[in-house]
Please model this.
Amino acid sequence: MNKFFETLKNIWSIKELRDKILFTFMVLGVFRLGTYIVLPGVNAIALNSSSSGRQANDLLQLINTFTGGAFNQGSIFALGIMPYITASIIVQLLGFAVPYFQRLQQKEGESGRKRINQITRFLTLLITLVQGSGYLLMLKTTPGVVSGSINPSVFWISNMIILSTGTIFAMWLGEKITDKGIGNGISLLIMVGIIAKLPQSFVAELSSQITENRYLFIVLELVALFFVIIGTVSIVQAVRKIPIQAAKRMVGRTGMASSSANDVINLKLTAAGVMPIIFAQAIMFLPLTAAQWAVGTSGAQSDLLLNFNNPMSFWYNVVFFALNVLFTYVYTALIVNPQQYAEYLKRSNAFIPGVKPGQDTQDYIDTLTTRITLPGAIFIGLIAVLPALVSVTGVNQAFAYFFGGTSLLILVGVVLDTLQMIESYLLMRKYDGLVKSGRIQGRTGQGITIGAGM
Model:
């Protein structure tokens, strides 16, 4: 405990780090405050009542978890940051398939990144207009939610502007955290929304199990959750180390190695980080948008749309698992470029023992990356469908989301990345790290890390 308080004191004594942390908390507070500002003409009490009667396995409840309750409150941040995530997914997939976007991402440096950011923001606005339309249709078709005294056209136009502004403002807040705060801003906004729903879900689970006198089940449930978290942390940080050596350089008449014997290339087991499950989750939200439009226009939904509106259903999880495996390979291919690492080693006059420089090194790294991506992809897929498996045992479905899925991976990934950045500041100032032994591995680690994730 003394070590913990000493570490907090060291963190607070670094002015730059202290300012970044305070700024981050301030921005997150502004974001959370916005989730309680209700859209004009919307009866938040009636919306909450209708949502409380909705089944816990409804996909709308999952969206509400990601937005920290803003979705079921008719908030100006009801769509959260998800339109921006969807736009980022589309742009990154275009970078994999379209030469123009490939050139922007890989060859045009800072100007290319700025152009990609502009395209992403414009696409975010378009997606917000589509998703916002579906959301407003849902509000209008829910009895008692929309005030009858407001003009339908005024309600539609004003709230479309407000929802779009709310999403763009949330995106701006995330970018400000990334620039002036600590951690990845967009990821932190998602994480704080998830954490906001955790206490309520946990209390509901305790009440449910205590009512049924299942005290032993509560203990086993918490133990299982602990091991799931530990396993997720271990897999997220797992790396395959490839030792590298550098040719000796001559200093006078003495040959000296230009690198230490501990230099390695770290191939991350889950190089794609949390992006595959976010990609897959965004895709799984598309049937929900279609269902909202179907209800708004015809008042009926197809059996297929109903099935994919249930995150606990069999076919939803089969498709969700397959998408996670697919996107793990796709995103790994996007961010891991064996050719770049082979060229880097060649320029550094370094090599992998037993492997020829150039094409052989590129093929060797590519082969290893492909091999370790398979277990990583299967793991991410299993974590994605774990809430459905856990709910079968009797766990409250709202709390089951925290046993795996997007919620758990985002929480683990974002926390590890943020703690790794804080530890870097401590080590730069000659303080002890956050742990007594070892290192927290976020996006970066010792050696050359392949795969940054989100």
